[in-house]
Amino acid sequence: MxxxxxxxxxxxxxxxxxxxxxxxxxxxxxxxxxxxxxxxxFGHQISLHLGEPFATTNSGRVGDKLVPMPHxxxxxxxxxxxxxxxxxxxxxxxxxxxPQLRFAGQPGEQWxxxxxxxxGNPIEVKGFESLQTIYDA
Length: 137
What we know:
The protein is an alpha+beta fold. Helix content is about 20%, strand content about 45%. The relative contact order is 0.20.
């Protein structure tokens, strides 16, 4: 069974969300009203609604670092991950966890980075040489 996910969450400013998701992340904008906007989030649908973003705590362990929980994430091919990391850096994005390699030379080797959108919603992006290795242990 193949499926796409749909995720809806709050943002505090739709114009800032459009600049970030559309401009920085490169997501195509879909339908919208005065209170929400949809984006094609790398092949999946996110709906950003005006409101109070969900509460997070830095309680997730990534190596020796604590990262925000809960968080939204996606997995990309390494070349796409590197291009996105470069766009985020060029836009002056502040990283919760700087782009880095994890599990070097091990099954499931991955590159990862954490950052927040303008409303504070945490996002993790992982990069893999092959998406076929995502679940390697």
